[in-house]
From TrEMBL:
Domain of life: Bacteria
Domain Aminoacyl-transfer RNA synthetases class-II family profile, residue spans: 6-359
NCBIfam families: glyS_dimeric, PRK04173.1
One Gene Ontology cellular component: cytosol
The family this protein is said to belong to: Belongs to the class-II aminoacyl-tRNA synthetase family.
A Gene Ontology BP annotation from the UniProt entry: glycyl-tRNA aminoacylation
Enzyme class: ligase
A GO MF term: glycine-tRNA ligase activity
HAMAP family assigned: Gly_tRNA_synth_B
Protein name: Glycine--tRNA ligase
Catalyzed reactions: tRNA(Gly) + glycine + ATP = glycyl-tRNA(Gly) + AMP + diphosphate
Binding site for ATP: 200-202, 210-215, 285-286, 329-332
Main function: Catalyzes the attachment of glycine to tRNA(Gly).
Amino acid sequence: QAVTMEKMVAFCKRRGFVYQSSEIYGGLRSSYDYGPLGVEMKRNIKEEWWRSTVHMRDDVVGLDAAIIMHPKVWEASGHTATFNDMLVESRTSKRRYRADHLIEDATGIDAEGLSPEELTKIIQEDDRVKDPVDGGRDFAPVRPFNLMFETYMGPVKSDENLAYLRPETAQGIFVNFKNVTQTSRVKVPFGIAQQGKSFRNEITPGNFIFRTREFEQMEMEFFVEPGTDEEWHEYWIEERWNWYLNLGIREENLRRYEHPKEKLSHYSKRTVDIEYNYPFAGWSELEGVANRTDYDLKQHAEHSGENLEYIDQTTNNRYYPYVIEPAVGPDRIMLAFLMDAYTEEEVNGEERTVLKLHPRIAPTKAAVFPLSKKQPVSTIARELYDDLKGDYRLFYDDSGSIGRRYRRQDEAGTPFCVTVDFDTIEDKQVTIRDRDTLKQERIPIKAVRDRLKDLISG
Ligand code: ATP
């Protein structure tokens, strides 16, 4: 049985995964802070993405561009003119809604991508569309609302100092295309990967960390020769799909969604989303994999006056590469992993809550328990802990019964618990307990490091 959102939010707070931002001041809507377990888990997600996308490959390099870029970047990319959501305001409750969502929720009509005029017409004519707060039907005409956060660079708040917080990380990659090709030894086909914060002034943020105004993204722009783009697109959809499966997401909770041709973004030739079946919202975008064509590089070439063509050194051919882009947010991934892993079950007549997270994603990799606080059991346990803690996040716990300590770690998703008991003094062996199977194995202390390494890499 799937966990409800309410339960997940309460669980995340109670166990220190995610807190409401500025909670002591009543909380800031749609802003969240990651607690001690949450920050470890999110770092692991980003680390796994970076490892598989950059380190494990010979054809991808990394980048870390600034959040505030030259305002012309957003003109060239089309964001200033078209990065809009359709806003509708209720004249009675004064509430603002995303017009396409309001229509979809009330009628089931897929209204994404319709013009303000088309949306206004539907809202006026279809009396199923009501203000969810007071049931009223008096709406102002729909208008586009730009989602970019504005700020000013320097002490003067003037038009020429207007700047934006980036709404996506991708543009930082495109504007550095020339730098990277000239200063590293990349050759098409190759990719540039980036992780970092993005900001969108969403009209209706919500569903916990699924949609917030400040969030992180992990994007990779993979540059290919035109004509090979469709094949590479398929390749990256497959790669990203398998990434989730390899990290333990249940396949029945994933599906592909093909964007209909008429609803593609202005830069896209084809986009396929990997959707996750979130219990609170049904199938929703987890990740988008887009064929962005040569749109962005050509736009930046035109607006900057720089030639951004790629020169093939072996054939001397010059061309604008096509771009395949897998784009995803670690916050959204984290929610999917948590939902997928959360389990309430009965073992030996007792209820337990357990997060069955893949060991690579689990916030804490292992816990070390001395059975007793007495010497030398506790000294041996402490030595083992100190010896291993530089390798990954470990947890030391010597308080409460062993059963209670196990339950705490089950809830935190810790895959392995290592217990030092009285027999350890004589046989120099410890017990490793597996979170999911509950099986215990006894191995020499000296073998713990290698054994845990094997178990964690899964
Ligand atoms: P949506 O349709 O859900 O608004 P999108 O199609 O606008 O998403 P993209 O621009 O493709 O999203 O961004 C790539 C990825 O960044 C998304 O798949 C998602 O994982 C993440 N992302 C986008 N917007 C948000 C947000 N407001 N909060 C959290 N993550 C987000």
